[in-house]
Description:
Layout lengths: L8 H12 L5 H22 L9 H13 L4 H20 L27 H9 L6 H16 L3 H5 L6 E2 L4 E5 L5 E5 L2 H14 L18 H15 L7 H14 L4 H8 L17 H7 L2 H4 L2
Antiparallel strand pairs: 1-2, 2-3
Helix pairs in contact: 1-2, 5-9, 6-8, 6-9, 6-10
Amino acid sequence: MKKPEPMDPLIEGYLDYLVNVSRKSPRTVIDVRCTLRRIAGAMRSAHGQTPLWKLELRDYLRWLERERESGRGGAVLSKYVSHLRGLLDYAWRSGRSDRNVLDGFGLKDRGDRLAPWALTVDQARRLVNACASRTAPERRDRTIVLLLYGCGLRTEELCGLDVGDVDRERRELLVRGKGDRERVVPIPEAAFTELLAYLLERGGQRGPLLRTEAKRHRITDKAVRNAVRRAAEAAGIERLVTPKTLRHSYATHLMDAGVDLAVIASLMGHRSPSETGVYLHVVDDQPRRAVDGLQEGIER
Length: 300
């Protein structure tokens, strides 16, 4: 894969800081890089070679208005401002600017956010049933779909799983989420049965749970997307189905079953039901009973 063109050394230093100090996930850092590259290009056209951390608040307000006029939504612009505010704070703390002109500045999304699309329970059942299991690659791809939907995993969380992360006694997965935060996710019984068969076929080897067939390397996010796409096509689902669709479906089906929002937030690795604040701790057997409710969508 071609490496991206480097930006200003201070920006590259900030991105390294996000990786090595803030422990942001690779996908988050890529997203921040794309945002800063976009903003730097726009500001270069308007202000020449003036660094981002030397611009005034009015310069950013004009840029935001241009972005709004081009059709950019409030949620996207809020993300841009958040990414930019982090860079400007880093520049200020590094002594490269007198202040962070965006300190305390935020945007209010003026429109209601649409709920993400999710599969129906019937579509989820069709998707799982459409996953063949004749060959080893097919059984691996079926395991991918089962874990994405049955455990609500992010793509990078799934790719990062090792064989040792499967607790066979407790029927649970140890998942490393954003910022290296760990959580334990119960595995629905039907998915767990097939996962055990998959592990047995692997012969108890250690290392990545999901591997490429050719060189036994850890599976990539592209391979995960392709596995989900093939399953959706085989199931006759016309809308685009991605790994994130299965994660949304996991949360939606739990919510439809009446599961408390705090339980869902804990299972999905959110800091809170609104993805802010501290983790909400879940007690007793609520996660187990909640995940067992996904049986209907997984069983053949």
